[in-house]
Design goal:
five-stranded mixed β-sheet; globular; 153 residues; 5 strands
Amino acid sequence: MRLLGIDYGAKRWGLSHGDELGLALPLAAVIAGSLEERFAHVARVIAERRIAELVVGYPYNMDGTAGFKAREVDVFIAELERRFKLPVHRTDERLTSHAATQLTPKSKSKKRHTPAAQQAVRATGEVDSRAATIILQDFLDARHGPALLPEDE
């Protein structure tokens, strides 16, 4: 079982990888310019990591209804299915970007907290890949239960 988690966005796609261990790990985000380049990047990751299933964050509202971006994500998922012929699972992405932002290491420098600095960090896709990791980990936990780390035993 090798899975690729995806946090879809108009500018960047965050990626994460999970396998038999049940742990999701971030990968470099897809920040290529064109849509074709983005799908080519995903194709390379699928081939290199021998991915068998895809997990995409789905934009539900807090009341459980599909969010305004749901149609856009549905189109994206249909394209993933068409191109890669792999199972695609939708999983709730509510608050994952917020949680990912909270997990991003903070600098003690005040310069890092300016809007321009925050935008620069966002442009790297680091937050998007952290969100993809949360999405995939939530999916893995729901499917198999939380992974046991050595200190949990």
